[in-house]
Amino acid sequence: MNYLQEILVISTALFFIGIYGLLTRRNIIAILMSVELMLNSVNINFVAFNKYLYPNSLDGIFFAIFIITIAAAEVALAIAIVINLYRNHDSVDIDSTTLLKY
Amino acid sequence: MNYAQYIPLLLALPLLSFAILGIWGRKSLKKSSGIIGTMVLLILTIISIAVATHYFFIGEKLNNGYQTIFALNIPWLDFGYKNLSIDIGLLLDPISVMMLVVITVVSLMVHIFSLGYMKGEERYPTYFAFLSLFTFSMLGLVLSANIFQMYIFWELVGVSSYLLIGFYFTQPKAVAAAKKAFIVTRFADLGFLIGILMLGIQAETFDFLTLIERLTNAESTAYINMQATSFLGISALTWALSLVFVGGAGKSAMFPLHIWLPDAMEGPTPVSALIHAATMVVAGVFLVARLFPIFHFNHTALNLVAWTGALSALFAAVIACTQTDIKRVLAYSTMSQIGYMMFALGVSGYGGESGLGYTASLFHLFTHAFFKSLLFLGAGIIIHAIHSNDLKDMGGLRHALPVTHLTFLIACLAIAGVPPLSGFFSKEEILLAAWEGNRMIFTIGLLTAGLTAFYMFRLYFLIFWNRPATKVISKEAPASMKIPLIILAAISLVAGFIPFSQLVTTDQQPFKSSFHVLFSIAPLLLVIAGIFTAMHLYKNQGEKAAHLAQWFGKFYQGALHKFYIDEVYLFITRNIIYKIIGSPAARFDKQVVDGGVNGLGNGTRFIAEKIKALQNGRVQSYLLVFLGGILILSFIFIGWNKI
Amino acid sequence: MDTSKIIFYLLGGFILGMALLAVTEKKIFRSAIWLLFALIGIAGLYFWMALEFIAAVQIIVYVGGIVVLIIFSVFLTHQAEDDMPKTGLSRKIAAGLAVISGAAFTIQLFLNNDFNLSAIPFDSDVARIGTAMLETGTGGYLLPFEAVSMLLLAAMVGCIVIAIRPEKSEKNDSENPPSFSNPPTRNPEPVEGILN
């Protein structure tokens, strides 16, 4: 198993840990943190592939840069929404936002 | 014959009257519905008498006999099996033309009587609508050219009877009586239907003429097949005819299917006069007469008819001697007289003089219709005057109700068989036919004649003599109620002189019937004995009748309770049919069938609740399911090959 | 087994350990800290892979920006001290099963694949990255660069619009409306301050 595969193992595990957190956590902010983990694992993937498979171009690195940027913007917006939700419902439990059900 | 074109009118007019009176009667035609019904019937009577005159006296004869005319013959339902089909056909032959006259005249009399009797009744238009429906059904029955069409009208007649018996539906007794009549006749009609199907399938036709032609020809395949196949040792033809006769016996209240007739007296009295005296109850006799050629070829079935008729006649006569309700006495009297008609058919031969029983039976049907309906209408007036049905409340009414008294007396003399009234001639011919056919049945008939005279005059004396006058609550009836009595009495006086054997015979060839003076002596003696016994016992008040009843002891008690036949039926239905068949079936239906269907619904709802839980508004659940789906799909599409 | 490999394994274990702690920790503040360490670990991994620029961007933006933002939001929603509500066991088991099977499937997928590794060493010079970012044509990322800056502007404006406190005269009970389920929360006073 070369370095690429080991790095991929790490990133896959990180991704699925993020999914576990996404599915299990009840606090919205904790869910956001899990999403950050998933995004990071994707970043690792991109740069690893770029470095070990296609060293001529820089596509992977740029993907990673843009993902970081957009993740930052997204977290900011998500926090704003959470603040708004907290103001209306007085709670950040995701089980209290179940209005769209049967 | 162009008069045949008017025959469909005979059916269309009463049906139209039923529809109009039924739909608009209660709303707009309240007062005039009676007049409309009666007018329609007047037209029908005129048409029938005109048709009869043309048919019997003016029309041409075929082979010196009356020809059968088809007024209408339209194919309707084709079974596609062995050329069987139900056609709509209207058939004119001697018996149907005779029945047309009987039905329309009696119905007209009943309509006129009802104008007065049912006045002030709330559902007056409905009553006339039902009467029109009945007239339509009965006319359709006698005009049917096709045994299945006759079955359809047979059932329609049963429905009309049910509607009319249960006319006062707020009284539970009337409702129970209507149910009983319908159920007993429906049960008998099961036999009728099976018989029809057997005859139809073997003879490959439902049409009367073709049926008779095929099954009376000893060389036809149908006849051979039917005689050859046997079930439980009895040939198929006998089974079929017996089953058809069972249907007829139900409608005609023969023993043991007679239980509905006394109870049917809960209906209005004009209804009893029309349906349960003159027309519907003779439908069974008419059926046997229609199929008579086939019956003649099968002696077993014919014997069944004869003995059932004879036993019913005697049975009913004995019971009638003990009853105290005026309408019940008349009901049992009807049963007895129809028994006469049945056994007359049963002992009859075929062809010319030997077909005397057939002619006599239909002659008696003709005369009986008139004097029996007269008796019922008179009873209606009496009941109306006294406000009670019971003989104990009546007595000495001959001065209070003079017209009723006179017409009732004429009718009693007619039914007893006193010359020169009509009943004498018809009964004498029946007894003559029985003498030639079956001596034992002749003896039964003779005995019953005596009993008939006895109980009818018992009735007469108990109503009009016996006591000083009972109080009459309502005064004598209006003219509309007296006119039918007078007309019917007049007919009863002269109808005996109609030369019936020239008109209605087994093979449509007229023959001369002779009058045997010597033969008539024995019945006449018995009749006079019966009348005088009744006079002795009942003309004046006294204990003689009660003593006689006690002398008969247990036998009298049994007759008073109608020989407990009703109790037997109740036992069978309650303990056997209800407990063993009905209740388990109902339980099965409720728990298994309903339970199954409900279970299906409940199961669906249960599954739906589970599925509903999938949409709980929680994003994490959705994601979990999403992830699971992706994993499964990726496993299927990518991983399957790798493993 | 050279040093490089050992360091790599240490880094990998550190990252995964911190991540696991982050998703299972009951107190949210601690969870944020575990996340912080995980992100630092990832930056360390980037350093090990000789991608200094990405590592630096990771630390500056993620660790220094996003985690701080998360901690701010924790304070703003008044949860710094409470335990978070627990999830049911069935949910955890279902999620765990899905995750483990997914991970197993994915890992075996690429373990069985033969990657043809390139022998050329990777040159991630910062100058090279910068030049490529402002180039048009192939290998140039000018357009995404400009688009991302527009995105950031939109995100900033959007955040402000979403989170702005409505004026008091419009609604009279925007502060304490009824909540639709029963999570354990406190009744807060209206927050004045940071984002007003």
Describe the structure.
The complex is a heterotrimer of chains A (102), B (643) and C (196). By secondary structure, chain A is mainly α. Chain A is 77% helix and 0% strand. Chain A is elongated. Chain B has 643 residues and is mostly helical. Chain B is globular. In chain C, helix 1 packs antiparallel against helix 2. Mean pLDDT of chain C is 84; it is low at 191-196. With 196 residues, chain C is mainly α. The longest helix of chain C has 25 residues, at 52-76. Chains in contact: A-B, A-C, B-C. Chains A and C meet through helix 1, helix 2 and helix 3 of A and helix 1, helix 2, helix 3, helix 4 and helix 5 of C.
Structural class of chain B: mainly alpha
Question: Largest chain-chain contact?
Answer: A-C, 79 and 92 residues
Head-to-tail CA distance between termini of chain B: 95 Å
Indicate the low-confidence ranges of chain A by residue numbers: none
What features would you highlight for this structure?
heterotrimer; B: 643 residues; mainly alpha; two-stranded antiparallel sheet; 25 helices; globular; C: 196 residues
